[in-house]
Amino acid sequence: MDGALLVEVKQGTGLQHSAYRFGDILSSALGARRIRPFISCRVLWANQRTTEQQTPYVEAGNGAFALWNHTLVFPLSAAFWKTDSFKVSFEARDKRELQGALRGDSLIGCGELQVDLQQMGDRQVTLRDAQGHASGELRVTLQLRAPEEALRVMSRSSSTPLAQAARAFAQTLHQSNALQRLKEARPERLDAGVNSLLESWLARFRKKGLGLSGRETDDEAINSLWQVARSAQEMIACYAQPGEDIPGIAVHWLKNYFSRCTGAEAELNETRLRALLTMHQVDVSGQNPWDRLREIGATLSGVEDAVALVLANRLEEAKRGAEEETFTQEEIIQKGRLIPGIAMVLRRDTAAQWGCHAFLYDHASIVQWQAIDAHDPCTRCPLRAEDIIKIS
Q1: Which top-rank group of organisms is this from (predicted)?
Q2: Which carries the bigger pLDDT value, residue 241 or residue 311?
């Protein structure tokens, strides 16, 4: 089994009577007409579907309120983790005894959820009868359970391919307690403010990690993951103490999280992880940074040489990694030249080697973003209009 989807059917409200059948009129006249609803459910993705599962039936109370608090567990296949979204279908039926044996339990209503992997948690489902009329509401909770194999990979990640370890990590990040676990695994010396940035980073890593098949070489996996690994370091740098070993903090944090997931001390290949974290980091300090900026098509003025050096390094990094811009998804460097309409977001940092960091965005998009949000979309650090400098 490659993990499981847990569907907890909590309660139903406003459940309507199912279609009348022979004997219902007499039951109603005798005061015995009642609803005894149960829920049938299945999960569908790509061209696959699970077998149908059912809750027990319950007696509906006043206002046709039904309480189940019953969890259905659907085993998943490996193909599930490759999909972007899936469906969960629901049928509410009225439990009949003799009539049910003869003709099946009568339908109260059907409903369906279209879910992507970021939409776990509490959901509401509208039920509709055979004529399309609303016939009640269900409250359900969706949770993913990572495959047991993912935990085994994480427990021995130092001796498994990087792609497998990253994929296993991404699978555990879809579990309902992943964000809290990651917060709890934060090294104590790292400022707690970093917790506020985790959720947006998790979404990006889950997408990248699940995009791996697990068969990639370490070099191929590093090429795929280096951008999201770099953003993790930028996030940590926002809240680390001056002079801290940022890759070291990242490795420590990851080890703590793996250990919490597996229940035993995890062994990580630190050399390989540091290679991932430093992928495409370059240093052009031996060159004149202003000459390098002109060669690549960047324009910059009114700043000190250190800022020019940081930007030259950053652009060379983007070139080597064929980096795509966050908003437009265009490659930032094409045919050795910076594309038009790019801006640098400059963040001063006394702990940085050259006193600042440079982030690259589409100028029109980041200006619009800043006017609405006032925080950097990747690092979630405060972002002022004057921090945005157009460079092409």
Answers
A1: Eukaryota
A2: 311
Q: How many CB atoms lie within 10 A of CB 217?
A: 11
Q: Are 314 and 226 part of one and the same domain?
A: no
Q: How far apart are CA 318 and CA 338, in angstroms?
A: 10
How far apart CA 292 and CA 284 sit, in angstroms, is: 9
Residues sharing a CB contact under 8 Å with residue 112, sequence separation 6 or more, in sequence order:
87, 88, 89, 90, 125
**Domain count of the fold of the chain:** 3
**Residue 283 C-beta-side C-alpha neighbours within 13 Å:** 5
0.85 surpassed by pTM: no
Same domain, 201 and 229: yes
In this structure, the answer to whether residues 83 and 186 fall within a common structural domain is: no
Q: The domain spanning residue 63 has which CATH number?
A: 2.60.40.150
Residue with the two structure tokens 């400022």 = 191
* 268 three-state secondary structure: coil
Q: What is the 3-state secondary structure (H, E, C) of 43-105?
A: EEECCEECCCEECCCCCCCHHHCEEEEEEEEEECCHHHHHCCEEEEEEEEEECCCHHHHHHCC
- DSSP-derived letter for residue 186 is S
- φ, ψ (nearest 5 deg) of residue 337: -125, 145
User: 388 to each of 82, 125, 130, 141, 296, how far by Cα in Å?
Assistant: 37, 44, 56, 42, 19
Check if the beta carbon of residue 356 is closer than 8 Å to that of residue 348: yes
Residues 356 and 328 in one domain: yes
Q: Is residue 183 assigned to a domain?
A: yes
312 found inside a domain: yes
Query: Residue 186 belongs to what domain range?
Result: 148-277
- Whether the CB-CB separation of 221 and 162 falls below 8 Å is answered with yes
pLDDT digits (tens, 9 = 90+) for 82-123: 887 899 999 999 987 655 444 568 899 999 999 987 778 899
Of 101, 127, 145, the domain-final residue = 145
How long is the chain?
392
Instruction: Name the token pair of 173.
Output: 């990040």
